């Protein structure tokens, strides 16, 4: 299974986890995020996203993370990213997973 990359950050105004959809467009749902198969493309998108987030004072802690596709949907490799994408693990009736 090939690893993909997505880019995430925390929105400054409210701390919400956001994901890069396209150049300069941030969304709250991982399902809408741009997925990168090519490491060079992911690195270039990450550099641009960091610069734009800082310039616009939009987000902090911008970074790329690994994921795979599971049943055609993005599935983060690490637990930290699953929690950031879905919300709390002890109350699945709360957070983004409740809306899914």
TrEMBL record:
InterPro entries the record matches: DUF2849
Protein name as catalogued: DUF2849 domain-containing protein
Organism: Azospirillum rugosum
